[in-house]
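User: Fold this; tokens only.

Assistant: Input:
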Amino acid sequence: MASSQVHQFSDKEKAAIEEAMKEAQSFQANNIKNAKASQDKLVLVSGAMKNLQSRALRLHKSHSWKGVFVAGPSETMATGVGAFVHEGTPWQGQLPMVVGSKGVVIYGHYDKALPQLGWLLAWDKPTHVDNGISKVYVEAGHLTKLMEMELAEIEKKLDESRSISRYWDSETGAAASAKIENAADNMALVGATFDQFFKASQS
């Protein structure tokens, strides 16, 4: 089996995700003036991603199924934290309809060295009216595999996920973990880690 989706974090992942959640909260506070969420009660999601492996990353793809980026995802990420703020909108297409925040980002190695690995993070924070469950989904492995995934396939995996997600690819060692936590009825924080190791689990 080349990969595994495991819903239990290692101690290292737990600590890194908690740090990322604090970063997301701080990033949200710094950017909320640019968002309409506080005035219009729109959904607002702030995310922070910790790059735990040694090579720098760059953003290869981002997509919003619902909502828009208030502060776009970091274009590059050395060993450290990248972040974004994403909010729902008061319209869907041409219709006046409040929608939640639902999107995906894919990061990959910045340099050209092999192997070229990638990390995917997707999230879904429904509106309070929808009364849905906030979800995250992560995947990791060869960058080409992630980039070739259809958006519909990613969305299906996200829809079938839950509030925590963990993925480890035994072929490349690429690993990702994430958690989404509601900060208020209309706000949520996402903390994620991008890593690489060659053990099925870490203490």
